[in-house]
Fold this sequence. Notes:
By secondary structure, the chain is mostly beta strands. It contains one helix and four strands, in the order βαβββ. The N and C termini lie far apart (36 Å). The site of zinc ion has 7 residues, from helix 1.
Amino acid sequence: MAGGPFAHEVTCPTCFLEEATVTKAVRVSEGVETDQYRCERGHAFGIDWSRGPATKPQWPPPEGGDDE
Ligand SMILES: [Zn+2]
């Protein structure tokens, strides 16, 4: 298990970097060090968790919005 249970959902880096959009991506397969994800808009990518699994939920993003 790479990212652990907290890493099941993450922010898609492609949407974030290329389109400044925060999109949820879901893990589609787990590796030993790298998990593979696919976002709701179809981007596929891997995240290297070799430094250790996530210690807190990766979704929703920790960055605060203006929801309050
Ligand atoms: Zn995306």
